[in-house]
Specification:
The chain has about 220 residues and is mostly helical. The protein has a single domain (about 1-40, about 70-215), classed as Transmembrane di-heme cytochromes, Chain C (Fumarate Reductase Cytochrome B subunit, Up-down Bundle), CATH 1.20.950. Helix content is about 80%, strand content about 0%. The protein contains 11 helices and no strands. Helix 2 runs parallel beside helix 11, helix 3 packs across helix 11 (about 195-215) and helix 5 packs antiparallel against helix 7 (about 110-135). The longest helix is centred in the N-terminal third of the chain and has 34 residues, at about 10-45. The protein is globular, with a radius of gyration of 19 Å.
Length: about 220
């Protein structure tokens, strides 16, 4: 078990990071080429002011018509992303890992706070899965196999991490599963809709600049 764990947190982890970073660079480069080819004029009217307005408005729950139109989806989405963000950056166990591998760490929140947020994020994942299957016909139609893989990986990463932290099951196995699921998530991130994690600033820059700067209307 120790040998497998060392392999997962060593060479396999670096491979996952390389694939993830390489995939992100490739996606950004390919999208930049596509934008210049199909709508080169759009790049000319991108404005930082309108981009930031759009970005910050859409990071506030229920601040836009789009968020208010789907209140339950909005709540689940923000809970999920908050749980992921906090657990990755401000969980004490992760900060030990950051410090050991990279020589820096961020302030840690109390483990109880992180555990509550992670548990809420797991419930949000379940809701999103049920919504895709039974509640929203539109979501069911547009959901692809890769989208299910992404949701399952996110859920598995949260569940295994929560189980490891709370002492559910064999801690060694749960920790190893958490590491492997996290690495699979990194590999999938650039090539699935999980890529919104790094593409969303560009989406908001385009939408904000077009809606506010060109159409002189609200970025809904």
């Amino acid at each position: 078990m120790n040998t497998l764990y060392n392999f997962a947190t060593g060479p396999l982890a670096w491979l996952a990071f390389v694939v993830c970073i390489g995939g992100i660079i490739w996606r950004l480069w390919s999208y930049a080429l596509l934008a210049r080819m199909r709508d080169g004029s759009a790049l000319a009217y991108i404005r930082p002011k309108y981009s930031l307005i759009s970005f910050f408005r859409w990071t506030v729950p229920y601040a836009t018509c789009g968020w208010r139109a789907n209140p339950r989806l909005t709540l689940a989405s923000f809970i999920l992303h908050l749980g992921l963000f906090v657990s990755i950056l401000f969980y004490s166990g992760h900060n030990v890992m950051w410090d050991y591998n990279f020589g820096f760490s961020l302030p840690s929140l109390p483990d109880l706070v992180v555990s509550i947020l992670v548990f809420a994020a797991i419930l949000a994942c379940i809701f999103l899965g049920v919504r895709r299957l039974y509640i929203s016909a539109a979501s069911h139609v547009v959901t692809r196999r890769a989208d299910w893989i992404g949701l399952v990986l996110v859920t598995a990463t949260l569940v295994s991490g929560f189980a490891s932290a709370q002492g559910f099951g064999d801690q060694g196995i749960m920790t190893l599963l958490h590491v492997l699921c996290g690495e699979a998530l990194l590999v999938c991130l650039p090539f699935t809709r999980l890529s919104h994690a790094f593409l969303i600033p560009f989406t908001r820059a385009y939408m904000g600049s077009e809606s506010i700067g060109v159409r002189r209307t609200c970025d809904w």
